[in-house]
Amino acid sequence: MVHATHHNSLIPNAPKPPSFDILRPLRRWIDHIEIEDRAFAQLLCQVIPCACPFERDITLFSYTLHIPALCKLNPLYNEIVNLRFRALTYLADCCGEDITPYLC
Predict the structure, then answer these.
(1) pTM over 0.85
(2) If exposure means fewest CB atoms within 10 Å of the residue's CB, which of 43, 71, 74, 96 is most exposed?
(3) What whole-number distance in Å separates Cα of residue 22 and Cα of residue 44?
(4) How far apart are CA 77 and CA 71, in angstroms?
(5) Which residues pair with 56 in a beta bridge?
């Protein structure tokens, strides 16, 4: 006997079941932070690094151990990087500031 099963993954453009994201309110809060102050934008650019500070190569007795960037394990990584980008854009476009000191 053959049983028909209904799977949304088999139907093209089918809506996905809602997933629970406990960090969603925090993600939305970060995404909605308005950057309207030069000092605040400068602070964000200074505090949020332009590259992941954890990636390292450790050499021990002619062996090199590479420790990969662990920033992407941060569940808010994309939102924080986007916030820094918006701060850089504000400084460059609205304030006419040279942002080269904030770039790696």
Answers:
(1) no
(2) 96
(3) 25
(4) 7
(5) 67
